[in-house]
């Protein structure tokens, strides 16, 4: 694959994938906020009992496929570590879509047979926690690669832009950690934290695409 072709495919796939990954927030707004976004995690929008779950599944499937495409093209002509993390993140995102939760976990009254003490989650419900964990690890890896790449990129940014780029990766990584903590403590509004983290991660991926032409090939 020619370098120019690879670069175009990589940047386009990463940009469109990043937008698709955040698309669920626009979707829930257009649908009228069926679940409280302050506490509801985005993956809950695609739970089995949700009326519009297919929309959110399609967005995740599309985003995951595009991240894998970006990773494959990046590995063929750029940072192999970044390519691997992008591929892993894409695969985990597809795994999220294909292993929906049984119900929105932040709303226990919607759990199947919620009045019963004994309830066994499906394999899909259990696997969702695994794929989400893998996606979180991969996202942290992408943040690390962004921090490394922006340090060596030859760009003529302003001082403020350079500071922002330097802090972007660690900041998104901190948001990832914060999201985990807020899930354990719902009063900290996990839905809000996750949505901010998702938007920040998408912005970081868009910046990765912008840095591609400026960074030295490795």
Give a written overview of the molecule.
This protein is mainly α and 218 residues long. It has 6 helices and no strands.
Strand segment tally: 0
Binned, the helix content reads 55-70%
Shape: globular
Radius of gyration: 18 Å
Quick one: biggest sheet?
Answer: none
Give the topology, please.
Layout: H1 3-30, H2 53-77, H3 80-98, H4 123-152, H5 159-184, H6 190-211
Structural key phrases:
218 residues, 6 helices, globular
Short synopsis of the structure:
The chain is mostly helical.
